[in-house]
Structure of Putative amino acid ABC transporter substrate-binding protein:
Amino acid sequence: MRYLRSSRLGGPLLALIAVLALALAGCSNDESGSSGPTSSTAKVEVSKVDEIAALLPPDIAQSGKLVIGVNVPYQPNEYRDASGKIVGFDVDLMDAVTGVLGLTPEYREADFDKIIPAIQQGTFNVGMSSFTDNKEREKQVDFVTYFSAGVQWAQQAGGSIDPNNACGKRVAVQSTTYEDTEEIPAKSKACTDAGKPAIEKLKFESQDEATNALVLGKVDAMSADSPVTAYAIKRSNGALEPAGPIADSAPYGYPIVKGSELGPALQKAVQYLIDNGQYQQIAENWGVEAGTIPTSVINGAVS
């Protein structure tokens, strides 16, 4: 969660892997192929709900917009399509949320680890980048939950990686994610405590780079949020497969300034979309319905 051996290959196999790597590398700016969402153009139409919009802080209501910090690419949640527009499940849902609130969303890119500080400083009203809501982060900001994701490992097709016994293996992660800061360090410590080799964690600035490292055989496995891993496997055309089951499910949330009046407004807007079925429709459009939640809350961290 976002809190987040090099193989010697030759001939046709190397060429195939190179092609797959290029295809994956292009995810951030070209998602026009058939492997994208099942209904990428079927935007859910949402109307303003006055009683929910009335909950907005006066300054945001008067501005008519919601300034949203986002880090891309992180398919299928947020990334750029072939035209350079930021799209994804998170984007479609936030478009719907702002529709309920009668606001225009303004997406601004930022480094993932700089989004929460920018919210605290007032640069962004809210963050939207697959943030895991956890107790540590709740000391800094409040969260409005909207999804549930777990950790899912991937490996090259035909591999035999066990996420719970990966001592001595090379594992790719995106920098500053839950997998980077908590999951892999904990698993590695269990290895060394048992007298086994540590897990060699390789950090990458983007999820695309982590996925490409696995496709190219530079690592033995990768660990990412379950919807992200599922999407990478789907786009690999059989080069990648799951390694072990989904584990450590936790909520995604929108980070906002602690105590802000924006929290109840966002929570009511998300719940409205859940209750009327539009939330489910958006999730199904992107194939991530396994992570939908029945109730949005403020600060729903489980650990």
